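Can't attach files on this board, so I'm pasting raw text. These are the components:
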Amino acid sequence: MLLMPNPMGENLNALVRQGYPREVCGLLLGVCRGDENVVSQVRQARNLNVERARDRYELDPEDFLAADREARAAGLDIVGIWHAHPDQPARPSATDRDGAWPGWSYLIVSVSREGVGEIRSWRLNGGEFEEEKITT
Amino acid sequence: MTTVTVRIPTPLRSYTRGADEVRAEGATVAEAMRALGAAHDGLLARVLTAEGEPRQFVNIYLGSHNVRTLQGMATRVTEGDVISIVPAVAGGAT
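---
Top answer:
Structure tokens for the assembled complex are below.
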């Protein structure tokens, strides 16, 4: 399960709307409580894939490192990754699966010209993504 | 022998019994990573290729520098250095 209190969700929606039509991405900082990832901060990161910025992301490892340092200093962990799916459903693609790591929540936000659509979270289980519940 | 700290990302902590960082000894990044692998079964295979280079979806940082921009895995370390295993995070809508 992913627990993401409302202010974090609103922050994320704003980042995704501002980024449209680019596939913006970032990190979820928080704590892991058993099977539950609890988000307390949302960080945006640079997408290094500029050639296909509408349908691919490659999160800048320097931004990952900076967020990781910040998280550790605050007693938090990186508990997940978020990214936008411009004009696509909030469902992980084969590309998402190939680059995924276990334990993290992968939050996908569908966005179009009309604004933010569905938001769904997925977690790797034995090589395949399974949807997890999002609570606020 | 030089002792360094290796920071373990969340997805790999199952190999370190939940520890977010561990100590390792070695004169180079490669030696420190080998020591890490010897102490934590299965971890190294997720991080390095059989040739001892970072795998496709992994970056190894020494301090704030990707070792690829230094002398690679042969980069020498000094006492108290911090090595970070940084998972490459990538995907896409299609």
